[in-house]
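Quick check before the chapter quiz. The format below is the same one you will see on the exam, so make sure you can read both the input and the output lines.
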Amino acid sequence: MRNYPSSTADVDNALLGKKVNSSAMGSMHTVLLTTDGLLIGYGYNVRTFKHTNDKVYGQLGRNTTYVTVLYPSVIAMNVSVRAIATGDLFTAALGSDGLVYTFGSNPYGECK
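Here is the expected output.
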């Protein structure tokens, strides 16, 4: 399983020429917001808790089993994003529709 680009062709072409408006960092993941409302993410996407061996997926908003996404790529959203924030293992995005979208770990209800 490959989770890194083997060439520049593997990097998301939708990012070419984009300008970053803001960034937010979780404990091991980063999300970027472009000036035109695209959400971009990379970093660690899963965490294993040693005492239970439970895994929590999704702070990068992907339906994937990749543990780490080493290169920035677009996080699919149905709306343009206006603002972003992150916690340790989750991401929040304010959509152009006024709704807050959250994804990632939710042990304390932070993604409801």
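If your answer matched, good. The CA atoms of residues 83 and 94 lie 5 Å apart.
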